[in-house]
Amino acid sequence: MLSSRYVADLLSGKKRATVRLGIVRRDREAVIHSGGRIVAVAEVLDVRYKRVAELDDFDAELDGYSNVEELKRALRRHYRGIKDDDVVSIIVFGSVKPVDLPDDWAYGGLKPYELAELALRRLELTEEERRVLAAVAKYKSVRRAAVKLYGSVERRRAIRRLLRTVARRLSGDLRSSSR
Questions:
Q1: By C-alpha distance, which of 47, 38, 48, 154 is closest to 96?
Q2: pLDDT (tens digit, 9 = 90+) per residue, 146-171?
Q3: Is pLDDT of 175 > 50?
């Protein structure tokens, strides 16, 4: 999720990276959500890990800031309670393709909670998958489910990844059952 104030910088190339609290797993691309929409798909060139205290001006400039102090102030506003010894992921982007899609596009047009409810009824799931999908269905929000399950919004990406996975599984399941 990217604050709407940074979307123009991302699309113009001024913002060539993003710094996120914690360890973010590297994917080939990142789907950028902002304001309830998918606004871009970015190629991921690299993911590096540092402690907040180790961030430097180069990291700040990649993320569209003038200097490291400005970056750290922004991180402290966004992640209340972040400490200098916390690990952050620096996700470096290559090409960025602007798109304008509804947030539910990746879920076959279903809202996340609708997809979760369908998956709970139709798929064989692990206990953890069932627990996560049940939270999405109950709270009708990926954000609220992340807070209830993990204590913060930072794990939304993992929940979205699971939702995309079950959407693909359901798509195959529905195609095979209609034959």
A1: 38
A2: 999 998 887 888 999 999 899 888 87
A3: no
Q: Which amino acid does the sequence have at 12?
A: S
Give the count of beta carbons closer than 10 Å to the beta carbon of residue 162.
Answer: 20
Could you state, in order of their start, the residue ranges of all structural domains in the chain? Answer: 4-102, 105-177
The CATH-assigned architecture of domain 4-102 is Roll (3.10)
End-to-end CA distance of the chain: 39
pTM (2 d.p.): 0.68
Complete edge-to-edge strand list for the sheet that includes strand 37-51? 17-21, 87-102, 37-51, 29-34
Q: What is the 3-state secondary structure (H, E, C) of the chain?
A: CCCHHHHHHHHHCCCCEEEEECCCCCCCEEEEEECCEEEEEEEEEEEEEEEHHHCCHHHHHHCCCCCHHHHHHHHHHHCCCCCCCCEEEEEEEEEEEEEEEECCHHHCCCCHHHHHHHHHHHCCCCHHHHHHHHHHHHHCCHHHHHHHHHCCHHHHHHHHHHHHHHHHHHHHHHHHHCC
Bridge partner list, 46: 92
Residue given tokens 């993911």 in the structure block: 47
Which residue in the block uniquely carries the two structure tokens 């102090």? 69
116: left (phi over 0), alpha (psi -120 to 50) or beta: alpha
Cβ–Cβ < 8 Å for 71, 88: no
